[in-house]
């Protein structure tokens, strides 16, 4: 089902899994209201730029994410997390979890799954009821890790956290720019059905 969300962006509903509603939302990590936004970053060296899914959030944070990467405060190592609170009003999320995806080009679906399980678990520990992610724009650095496999790994990781830590997240929104929403929605819908059926 497709409809307009409260922030006027289009929403594509995926369904409910483990008492949590999954959806795709037109927008970016800075524009969608949530308890926490998850910004996934690779450990590329030297740090030249951020992935497209994180750039808008970094602009809203006045370059803080890029500075933390350059200064080595956050390295982007596999499963590394850093929580940012006291955010400026330019960001609709109440907090940001920075999530490390390791070196570019060394991704596997198992590692992506585990990284997102770690991020979802941290969101639950923080008491978040609604989390946003930008995996449709995830820079995997690995051509054979296609969009559907990536979506499946992300969804499985979050689902595992929901099973392990009952009573946490009630809504997970995957953000994508409006022109990419339908294509991302197809990939996520296929991946979501695979998880529900198994």
Description:
It is a single chain. The protein starts with a strand and ends with a helix. The chain has helices at 52-60, 64-70, 109-125, 147-164, 181-197; strands spanning 2-4, 10-17, 20-26, 36-41, 81-84, 96-100, 130-133, 171-176. The chain is α/β, with parallel strands linked by helices. It has an 8-stranded mixed sheet with strand order 1-2-3-8-7-4-6-5, sandwiched between helices. It has a single domain, classed as Leucine Aminopeptidase, subunit E, domain 1.
Structural topology:
Blueprint: E1 2-4, E2 10-17, E3 20-26, E4 36-41, H1 52-60, H2 64-70, E5 81-84, E6 96-100, H3 109-125, E7 130-133, H4 147-164, E8 171-176, H5 181-197
Parallel strand pairs: 3-8, 4-6, 4-7, 7-8
Antiparallel strand pairs: 1-2, 2-3, 5-6
Helix pairs in contact: 3-4, 4-5
Keywords:
198 residues, Leucine Aminopeptidase, subunit E, domain 1, eight-stranded mixed β-sheet
Describe, in short, the structure shown.
By secondary structure, the chain is an alpha/beta fold.
